[in-house]
Design brief:
This protein has one domain. With about 130 residues, the chain is an all-alpha fold.
Length: about 130
């Protein structure tokens, strides 16, 4: 294996991450930083989608049709939501494992960003049971 890390050579690869924002938001010591990080993640997602929208006007059609923009609203139990998150995470992890060592110079590849959010809405407005 060739040596890595000489000069400005990038020898690491980004993977992305998940964040248990709720846990950090409930801790007074980390709440402000967690709020900032979560807001930055939302901002970055918006910027990435805006970049895709702009680039999609001139990107090769086969690449555009291979991707997806999807939004689905489901009525789920907590357990079903947890199952969904686990299942999608397993698919994403398996894909990452297959391609993580792929060189950036491999023909007919592109950097693909996957956003996955699954969250309940409207629960904060409900009355709390006594």
């Amino acid at each position: 294996m060739p040596e890595r890390g000489k000069g400005k050579e990038r020898w690491w690869r980004t993977r992305g991450f998940s964040l248990d924002g709720d846990r950090f938001r409930r801790d007074p010591e980390t709440a402000e930083a967690a709020e900032f990080l979560l807001a930055e993640m939302v901002r970055q997602r918006g910027a990435e989608l805006a970049r895709w929208l702009e680039e999609s006007r001139t990107s090769p059609r086969p690449w555009i049709t291979a991707g997806v923009n999807s939004r689905v609203a489901l009525r789920l139990t907590r357990e079903e939501l947890a199952d969904l998150v686990r299942d999608v995470t397993q698919v994403l992890d398996a894909c990452y494992d297959r391609v993580r060592e792929r060189d950036e110079e491999v023909p007919d590849t592109a950097r693909v960003i996957v956003h996955f959010d699954a969250f309940p809405v409207g629960l904060g407005e409900r009355e709390k049971p006594d």
